[in-house]
Specification:
globular, SAM-dependent methyltransferase, 7 strands, alpha/beta, 7-stranded mixed β-sheet, Rossmann fold, SAM-dependent_MTases_sf, 9 helices
């Protein structure tokens, strides 16, 4: 779930080690979002068909691959991530799940892949809000679009809305950490970190605009959790 090389620097070995637990607290409905992402792709592709799926930002536990592969045995995956520690964790989870034979793991970014429309579908989950500025966000979406067949579906998921613009959601996010055992100082540290450490699109319309500029049709949202949203959109053309 990591992003471009500059953004990937914050996903060092210490963060990779805590990532799997932390991500499930930060995103209420973590497992459901991944399961629904696989369901939406299957609905768009057609049930039971073979497919090549590009997983951009697959570092961490490679949850996109592990979840979708268990539900769709005819899919194969190319998992890309620029963070070596996060990619190492992904490799470990793929090997534990017996999915390494169905998954090509590529260190680097989507731009490092051959530019050909070889993929039937793609996912970009938990990445976009880590990329600073709209141009970096457009760039990764364009890079993905160039490698998808026309009409192929993309699952895009991540935080949207400026965090400080939604104080009640931000407070609820902090309460979730408290309810999971974090003390007051830890909650405040995490709240400060999210306010300073990410640049989410500022609205759902901003997400749609980025997708349009990146080469995709209008998105359909299928999941929401506090600041988090998940959409499906097809490559234009």
């Amino acid at each position: 779930m990591t992003a471009a090389p500059e953004s990937a620097q914050k996903f060092d070995a210490s963060r990779a080690g805590e990532y799997e637990r932390q991500s499930r607290i930060a995103l209420a409905g973590y497992e459901a979002c991944h399961e629904l992402a696989a369901c939406m792709l299957a609905a768009a592709l057609g049930p039971g068909r073979e497919a090549r799926v590009l997983v951009a930002g697959a570092g961490g536990g490679a949850r996109e691959v592990v979840t979708a592969a268990a539900l769709e045995p005819n899919w194969r995956f190319t998992a890309v991530d620029p963070s070596a520690p996060m990619l190492a964790l992904a490799r470990a989870r793929l090997e534990e799940s017996g999915l390494d034979a169905r998954t090509e793991v590529v260190p680097g970014t989507v731009a490092d892949l051959p530019e050909a429309d070889d993929f039937d579908a793609a996912t970009l989950i938990g990445v976009l809000h880590h990329l600073p500025g709209d141009e970096a966000k457009r760039a990764i979406l364009r890079d993905i679009a160039r490698r998808l067949r026309p009409g192929a579906p993309l699952i895009l998921a991540g935080n949207h809305q400026a965090y400080a613009s939604q104080p009640l959601l931000l407070a609820a996010w902090g309460e979730r950490w408290r309810q999971q055992g974090a003390g007051p100082d830890e909650v405040e540290a995490k709240r400060a970190k999210i306010l300073q450490g990410a640049d989410p699109p500022h609205s759902e319309q901003a997400v749609a605009d980025l997708l349009r500029d990146g080469g995709f049709e209008a998105p359909l949202r299928f999941f929401s959790s506090l600041f988090w949203g998940a959409w499906i959109a097809r490559r234009a053309g």
